[in-house]
Design brief:
- The chain is mainly alpha-helical.
- The protein is 77% helix and 0% strand.
- The protein is built from 14 helices and no strands.
- Helix 5 runs antiparallel to helix 6.
- The protein is elongated and about 70 Å long.
Length: 233
């Protein structure tokens, strides 16, 4: 009668990838406890994962209606709208999310992604700049920002963001690789050797170190050595 076992069953099914069975269990819960916003939220996620995007959005919208002050629920609702291609709705949901949670970077990152889909590159960069100000210690966000600055031909700013990413998370392979490629394209290849050293010291994967060393070898004309490095990937 408490539904505790049913909630546990639904959760375990969801965690093990049995999304349709999990959704069925969550339906039993919300049929009894119609105000259980967490179960409505989980039902929506399970349905979306099971391929029922419409049903997933309906459940997530119900969860958001029951608990409009819950940020993860709003985020999931927007994700379901994007999944259905309802970009206008998703954008409105995320913009309201930004107003209600002015210090949360996540909706801004998603708004940037929607702007990219729509070809609004300038707006995408603005959203990422705002997100990065809110979460200055997020290395992956700095990578996104660096790439978007590159796209806008803000090359110095791109380098700043990529270097920040390597500092914030020294083991982030992507940040070191993108920084090295950026330096190469900007004719700053002499700096790649430093990237190799900091990457190795930061604990990146061996394949990343081999790739970076191969870049150095290519610039120096040591092609046989470069091939040897690539063979180690």
């Amino acid at each position: 009668a408490s539904l505790r076992l049913m909630r546990l069953r639904a959760y375990l099914l969801q965690q093990t990838g049995a999304y349709a069975e999990s959704a069925a269990a969550y339906r039993i819960i919300v049929a009894v406890d119609t105000d259980d916003f967490e179960s409505w939220n989980n039902l929506g996620n399970a349905l979306s994962a099971a391929g029922d995007a419409e049903g997933g959005l309906a459940a997530l919208s119900k969860a958001a209606q029951l608990q409009p002050g819950n940020a993860p629920v709003r985020f999931n609702q927007a994700a379901a709208q994007v999944q259905l291609g309802r970009l206008d709705e998703a954008q409105a949901t995320l913009q309201a999310y930004c107003r209600d949670f002015p210090t949360d970077e996540k909706p801004r990152v998603e708004l940037a992604a929607i702007c990219k889909i729509r070809g609004l590159d300038g707006e995408a960069l603005q959203w990422l700049e705002e997100a990065a100000r809110l979460a200055p210690h997020d290395a992956e966000l700095q990578v996104k920002l660096g790439l978007e600055r590159q796209f806008a031909w803000q090359m110095e700013g791109a380098e700043v963001a990529l270097r920040a990413a390597t500092t914030l998370r020294p083991s982030l392979d992507e940040a070191h690789i993108l920084l090295a490629l950026h330096l190469e394209h900007m004719n700053k290849a002499s700096g790649i050797a430093d990237v190799v050293r900091t990457a190795a010291a930061g604990g990146v994967r061996d394949g990343t170190t081999h790739f970076l060393r191969a870049l150095v070898c290519r610039r120096e004309g040591r092609f046989a050595d470069g091939l040897a490095e690539l063979a180690g990937l």
